[in-house]
Amino acid sequence: MDLPTPPAAFDLDAHAARMARDGYTRLDNLLDDAALAQVRADLAPHLGGPRGRNAFEGFATERVYTLVARGKVFEDLTEDPRILALIDRFLLPGYLLTASQAIAIQPGEAAQGLHYDDSFYRLPRPRPPVSLSVIVAIDPFTDQNGATDILSGSHLWSDDEVAAFSQDPDAARRLEPVVMPAGSAIVFQGHMLHRGGANRSSAPRLALTNQYCQPWARTQENYFLGVPREQVRQMTPRLQALLGYDIWPPFMGHVTASHPAKTLEDGWVPPILRPASPG
Fold first, then answer.
1. Of the N and C termini of the chain, which has fewer Cβ atoms inside 10 Å?
2. Spatial contact of 262 and 255, defined as CB atoms under 8 Å apart
3. What are the residue boundaries of the structural domains of the chain, listed by start?
4. 93, 155, 223 from 178: Cα distances, Å
5. How far is the C-alpha of 244 from the C-alpha of 247, rounded, in Å?
6. pTM score of the predicted model
C-alpha cells in the first residue's frame, strides 16, 4: 500500500533521537484549529456521562473508549504520518493500535498513580518498548489543570529501579508536567513512567490518547468486536491494518488460513458456516 510521508519540515531523526535518549518527544501543531473544533464537535455527544470506576481511571475523569471509530478526525489522527514515522523507528512492521480514547479530567481530580503503559506485558526491565503512546492536548496543558507528569529517562530503568522510585516519598518532586498548547502532543515509549496530573483548576482538561503495540502483542481494546465490520470497510487499508486486519508474517492473525482482510469483502461467510464440500 502507498503510505503518506511526513512533511519535509518534520525532523524525524531529531524526534527519534530524543525519544531514544529521554523516552519522549513533543510534536507541536499536530492538530490545527479546524481539527480541534472537529474533535470537540465529534466528542460532545459522548461526554457528560459516567466517570471512572476506580482511582486509576479517575473518579472525576471521563473516558471515551474506541475513539478511532467515533469520527473521521480520529481516524486521520491515528494514521498521522508524523506519528507513524516515529513509531516505525521503535516497533516492528505490522504494529497494531492497542488503545484509543479521549480523557477529560474534571476539576478536583487527584493525580493518577505513577505507572507505565506497557506494564501488563510482563517482561523484565530494562528492555525495549512493547508499545508507544501518544497524548494530544485538546485543551492547553498547564501545571494546574492536569497536564501529564513524566519522568524523563525512566524508560531505561530496571524493575528494581522502578520499584525503588515508587517507594520514594519524594518521588513526585522529580516529575515534570508536560505544559503545551492545544493541538500539540507528546509521543513516548510505553515503559516510561508518567501519570495524569491533578486538576487544580476550575475547568476540565481534555486530551486524546492512542497507543500502538508490537504486532505480536495482545491489544488492550478488541477492535474486531468494538468496531462494526461495515465501518472498518470504509477505512483506509493502513487503518484497517492497525486494527488487526493484516498478517504478521508468516501467519499470525489468519482467519481459518485466510488473510483477515478477506473478511471485509462483500458476501464473506466464515468458513465454519459454509456448506461442506461433497466427499
1. C
2. yes
3. 12-251
4. 29, 17, 30
5. 8
6. 0.95
